[in-house]
Each structure stands twice: as structure tokens, then as C-alpha cells.
Amino acid sequence: MTEHSTTEHTPAEHMSAELDSQPETWAKAESLRAEQALLPARGARIAVVGCGTSWFIAQSYAWLREAGGHGETDAFAASEAFVDRGYDAVVALTRSGTTTEVLQLVEGLRGRVRTIGVIGDASSPLVGLVDDAVLLPFADEQSVVQTRFATTALALFRASLGEDLSGAIADAERAVAEELAPELTDAEQYTFLGRGWSVGLAHEAALKMREASQSWTESYPSMEYRHGPIAIAAPGRVTWQFGETPEGLAGDVAATGAHFEAGTLDPMAELVRAQRVALARARAKGLDPDAPRNLTRSVILDA
Questions:
Q1: Which pLDDT belongs to residue 214?
Q2: CA end-to-end span of the chain
């Protein structure tokens, strides 16, 4: 198990510190060339699986890998994965390495398909089940609500595809330092939108808001928003775009009276901003996102 400090902490102290450390953990992930080399090679046909946050990060990685010409890449929730499709490899992303659905899926693939685990806890049972383990213990977390492990894993994936992350890291530094505007922290409702690889990040932003602050949030691909979901937009509510805004969308939202937040940072850094809003709202409500309602660090199901 991951070692935890016995020092007393105020509510959300872990989430706050872990959230703010993301520029450093992304830079470290970018430098891990040996670990990146364990990921599927260019041309391999792969699936990426995870649960919750990890599933959304898998969606972003899958889009980037396939759109970049690195090979067909599918993303699945581990509990709903169709992995018997002749894949060359399956990548399992999990912070704890103890999630029941991931362990069951990997166990079922042993000896049939190469498996690669991207794992936060180096002592977890998944390490011994996969063919190759990519370990990110420096990004592991004590807060139940994930922030840096997810984005650090995506930083590793992006670097493995040949991306230069210097701009993303600089944007993250801005994101952790900026003063949050009241129209973001005090809204009644939030809708997060993304395009391409940022759709997964929009889904993850909404999950963070629900987990940490029990906020009313939704998320959609940007072009789908006008096909019904825009009906929820109204004064006092926020529509937040990650990445490039589709033409005309900002005006459509403005006409509803809602606040349109056109994200100008790298979408991973926009997620950091959303994490900070979730944390601020949790604190304002007297909630502790280090130990949120009805949640545990890992979902371990009874046999």
C-alpha cells in the first residue's frame, strides 16, 4: 500500500497540494523515456481501459494516438470493454492498481494479449499481473479525488507520441497561480465542452466538480451541445469550452444569459483550472474532497 503521513491535515490539504504540483509532475513524466518506451509502438492496434477518471484520460489518449497516425486506438470503461478484437496490446490505466474491474480484465487477458499497466501505486497487485508496468509513484495521491495522477499519465502519453509539453507546463503554472473569477466559483450549474482529445478532459472536469463539491455539472462534445443540452444554459450558469471554440457557439451561449468561458490554455491546463474551481466550491460548502461523500480511493467489489 502507499505510505501515508500521520501528520494532521486540514480538509482538502492533500488535494490542494497535489493539484498545485502538476507542472512539476508533468515535467517529470515528459522526461521518463524508458517508461514511455514500454507503451505500444507506432502501428500497434490497441485498447486503453480504465474506470472513472482513468476512462476519461483513456479517451483523450486514444484520440491523440489515432489522430496522430500511431495506430488504431479504442478506449473503454474496464467494466464494458470489448478487448477480444485482435488487439496487439491493452493498456490499463489505474492510480491504485486495485480496482476490481481492471484486475479482472487483465487477469482474463494473461497469456493471450500483451498488457501494459500505467499505475500510481508501485506495490499494487496489478504490477504482478501485467506484462509491463509503467510506474508513476511520484504522481500518486492521498486525496480520494484525483487530480495530478490522471493528468501526469496523460502527460506521459502525450510525450510518448512525440509532443513537446513545454507550452502545456507553462499554462499549468499560470492555471495554479491565477485568481479565480466569481462567475466561475459562484455559478449555479456548469457544462464542460471539448473537441477531439479534449472531450475526455471535459468529462473529467465535470466529474471533479461532482466528486469534490457536489456541484451540478454536465459534459458533452462541443458540437453536440446545441442538439439539446443548451436548453440548460441560463443566467448564473457556466458553459466552459476546453480547446478551440466552434464557430458561433459563444454567441449562442451568450444569448441564453449564461457565462461562456472560452478556455485559452492547453486543455490539460484548463482542467487544472476546473479542479481549482471544484476545490474552491468544496471549501465554500464546508466539504472535504480528500474524503468525499460515498467515495473511496479505489472501488473494490465483493467476490
A1: 94
A2: 20
User: Which residue stretches of the chain have pLDDT < 70?
Assistant: 1-12, 292-303
The pTM for the full model equals 0.92
- For the chain, domains (ranges, CATH) are 13-160 (3.40.50.10490), 169-285 (3.40.50.10490)
Type of residue at 266: D
| Beta strand segments in the chain, E | 46-50, 73-77, 89-94, 114-119, 132-135, 189-194, 217-221, 237-242, 259-262
User: What local confidence, expressed as pLDDT, does residue 201 receive?
Assistant: 98
Residues ≥6 apart with Cβ < 8 Å to 77: 49, 50, 51, 55, 101
Nearest to 118 by CA among 133, 128, 108, 105: 133
Please give the Cα distance from 170 to 3 (Å, whole number).
Answer: 30
- Residue 4 has what pLDDT? 35
The residue behind cell 471539448 is 194
What is the C-alpha to C-alpha distance for residues 66 and 27, in angstroms, rounded to an integer?
24
- The closest alpha carbon to 31, from 135, 196, 212, 155, belongs to 155
Asked if residues 174 and 223 have their Cβ atoms less than 8 Å apart, the reply is no
The upper half-sphere exposure of residue 102, i.e. CA atoms within 13 Å in the direction of its Cβ, equals 32
